[in-house]
Prior knowledge:
The chain has 197 residues and is of the alpha/beta class. Helix content is 35%, strand content 24%. The chain has a seven-stranded mixed sheet with strand order 3-2-1-4-5-7-6, with helices on both faces. Helix 2 (25-35) packs parallel to helix 3 and helix 5 (120-141) runs parallel beside helix 6 (158-168). The chain is globular and about 40 Å long. The model has no long low-confidence stretch (mean pLDDT 95).
Amino acid sequence: MKKAYNPQDKYFQKAKDEGYRARSAYKLDAIQKKFHLISAGDRVLDLGAAPGSFMQLVGRIVGDSGIVIGIDLQSIKPFRKSNMKAYEGDIFDENIYEKIGVFEFDVITSDLAPATTGIKSVDAGKSFQLNEQVLEVAKIHLKKGGHVVMKAFPGENHSELIRLTKKQFKTVKPFVPDAVRKSSREVYIVGINKLLA
Ligand SMILES: C[S@@+](CC[C@H](N)C(=O)[O-])C[C@H]1O[C@@H](n2cnc3c(N)ncnc32)[C@H](O)[C@@H]1O
C-alpha cells in the first residue's frame, strides 16, 4: 500500500530543530556529502532560492570568506550575514545578473520548480525550460572547472537535458537524495567540472 503523504515528516522536523527555512536543505546536504561540490571560500549562485534553506546550508559551508547569492521570483527574508544576498527576480531576466555584482561563480545550485499544473508532461516541459536557462547562466557565470546542481522533473526532454549538460561538464550524474519525497519524481542532475571558460 502506498504510504500517505506526510508534509511533517522527519526532514520537516529536523529542519525546524536545526533552524533551516525548509526541508530542502537536506537534499542539498546529501548531494554535498556525496559529491563535495562546494568548498570554504566559494562563490555560489542559488537559482530558485526562496525561502532560503539551500542558501543557509551553503552559507555554513562557504563560511565568511565565501559569497552566497540567491535569486527567486518570491522575496527571501534577508540574511544577517553580509556575504549572503538574496534578490527578487526572474532567472530569465538578463538584468538580474548585472544587479548581483558578482560575475563568476564556483558553483551554481538550482532547486527551481515551476508552478505546477498537475499535468506531468506540462510540468516536465516547464522544468526543462528552467534547466535550459540554468545551463545558459552557467555558460556565462560559472568558472571553468565549476559545478552545477539542478533539479529536474524527468519527461520527454530529459535525455536532451542530460545531453546539453554533458556538452558543458566533464562528468554528469543523476542523484535522488533521501529527503526527496517518495511520491515525487524529482531528480537532481549534478554537472562536475565545467569544460570551457
Ligand atoms: C522548491 S522552491 C526552492 C526551495 C529552496 N531551494 C530552499 O531550499 O529554500 C522552488 C523555487 O523556484 C522559484 N522559481 C520558479 N521559477 C522561477 C523563475 N523563473 N525565476 C526565479 N525563481 C523561480 C519559485 O518561486 C520557488 O520559490
